[in-house]
Amino acid sequence: MNQADSSTIVVKRTIAATVDELFDAWLDPDSLAQWMHPGTTALSTASVDARVGGAFEVLMHYPDKPLRHHGVYRQIERNRKLSFTWISDATQHSETLVTVEFNVASAGTEIVLTHERLPGQVACAEHTQGWTLAFELLADLAAKPLVLVTFDWVPEMPRGFVRDIRVRWALEEAGLPYRVQSVPFSDRNADHFSHQPFGQVPWLTDGDLSIFETGAILLHLGERSEALLPAGPRGRAETLEWLFAALNSVEMASLPWSLLQFSGNNDGTPGWNMMDSFLKKSRLAHLEPLLAKREWLAGPFSIADIVMADVLRLVDRFDGLADYPACRAYVARATARPAFLKAHADQMAHFAAAD
Amino acid sequence: MNQADSSTIVVKRTIAATVDELFDAWLDPDSLAQWMHPGTTALSTASVDARVGGAFEVLMHYPDKPLRHHGVYRQIERNRKLSFTWISDATQHSETLVTVEFNVASAGTEIVLTHERLPGQVACAEHTQGWTLAFELLADLAAKPLVLVTFDWVPEMPRGFVRDIRVRWALEEAGLPYRVQSVPFSDRNADHFSHQPFGQVPWLTDGDLSIFETGAILLHLGERSEALLPAGPRGRAETLEWLFAALNSVEMASLPWSLLQFSGNNDGTPGWNMMDSFLKKSRLAHLEPLLAKREWLAGPFSIADIVMADVLRLVDRFDGLADYPACRAYVARATARPAFLKAHADQMAHFAAAD
């Protein structure tokens, strides 16, 4: 390795995090997508097959077109060393080699990245800049106290509707930095139940607080951002009553209805008819005239809208809003928000990465 | 009127409230029961037929036996004058006459009460003391900013389970003063829907704030009392996650289940079986081991327990806790609390008074 060599660069950075955390940040696709991108606006999606010989891909979503980076893992020595090939437009599609070493340091962990076989000095300069920026983002990510925990994978059907989307959406609306961590879908252990007593997801950790129930998480985030929950007593009260209304009046009717729909038990029995009427006559019929007259439930867009729109879009999925055009239009305008689109794309990519 | 007369007394009191509010406090049976009683422990129940010639009854519940006061309205001039006959043990069952005049005063409203035809000086002294104390309670009541609004009447079946009980319970636990106001069960008008968009009860007014959804009301009250919601960040987070869990994880399963039970649609159809399993396998089975190990959900008793216990006792009513003894024991210890017993008795008395 010779830094004067016109085909090799070395980039070093010490980050205040454990070796464990930083090593995972390279191999967990969610983490990788969150720091390996070219800036704060363009985002990445990533897939990882974390074994020697396994492939990875990072798509950096530039405004004009995505830039594809891909390669194959050559060495994986947990918490010590990682090496992989690296091919992109910027390498002129030639195969280059990246080696990352992790050294325990007094201020955390030193990362030493060596990028070899780059095609010339311009490529060397570009990649030095690129890795330096990426490490800046990785350091930011490691400093983030908010961690959203969700399943590593779910079947096709619930994708896009797993409840972590409500938390992702709120975090994106508020611009709060966060990381995503996975727990196994198919093997929920005691640690999982200690965070979420019903074995569900998501939960959120904020420093040493661990909070389950999306309603409680959104309220917690709301206390941190006026983009989610107004600070004045009237705005706060109105937002909270609608948050509870979405969860305990509307979803209490819509979720059983959706379960019966999903399982094919929407069968004209008296029980089904009762649940159908509970949702439509007792809930949507009252919501419809309100949503025809207001853009959002409680003045400005808030956590109440995140929950209500997410509740209603599941009803819409089973065509339950056909007779409620104002409810449907409300769902459309809520889900057109950039924060929702980002949250939705992230959830889809997260589960797809584990297929 | 002659104060020296041995059969007539006059009691005056100026109270910081509008004439409107104070006039209503005499003719609304809920209000009447809350101030026309002999002290802070013994309570009253009241019925009122608020028209000239209509009868009223106030039962003051002394520890040994209720004391009955009754009479008939002779004059009702709204916001000016009220007169009625008054018969009780203390009048030696002879018919006496009470006239109440309402005068606008700079500090609120002056009430001038004249009680005629009392049987002698002892009765005069007793009634002077009685009315003076009652006016003290009326002044307290008028100063209370918290008003719980519920139905004037409901059918037999839901009594004891109407959701205002959660709010009554919280108010009693916290010792917060409040009044109860009624809205018609059978004729829900636009004003009702402006406070509660689904036409349900309860709602709470706190000064000029009006809040619906029991979850939002309990959270609002929790901010006022550590007996309901711990102030520290960890205690607060744990209480709130369990509040939402009770409303959005457990009740979302239990309420549809109860509706199907109540309507006789617990019929072994696949739809019923799914909802039964949703409640028992996905919820109660996870709650059972937790409640076997802890007295309350989140450390000290809190609003989370008020909701969870109320949710579970409806399941218990349909014998759904038979296989979950820890859940059942939890309901038993929560509903043995004096604040629950008071809230429950008040709700039963409130609806019974309108039969």
TrEMBL record, chains A, B:
Q: What does the similarity note say?
A: Belongs to the GST superfamily.
* Natural source organism: Pseudoduganella aquatica
PROSITE patterns, alphabetized: GST_NTER (PS50404)
Report the InterPro entries cross-referenced here. ASHA1/2-like_C, Glutathione-S-Trfase_C_sf, Glutathione_S-Trfase, Glutathione_S-Trfase_N, GST_C, START-like_dom_sf, Thioredoxin-like_sf
Protein name per UniProt: GST N-terminal domain-containing protein
The protein's matches in PANTHER family, at most eight in alphabetical order, are given as: GLUTATHIONE S-TRANSFERASE GSTA, GLUTATHIONE S-TRANSFERASE-RELATED
**What are the residue boundaries of the GST N-terminal domain, all occurrences included?**
151-229
Alphabetical list of SUPFAM superfamilies matching this protein: Bet v1-like, GST C-terminal domain-like, Thioredoxin-like
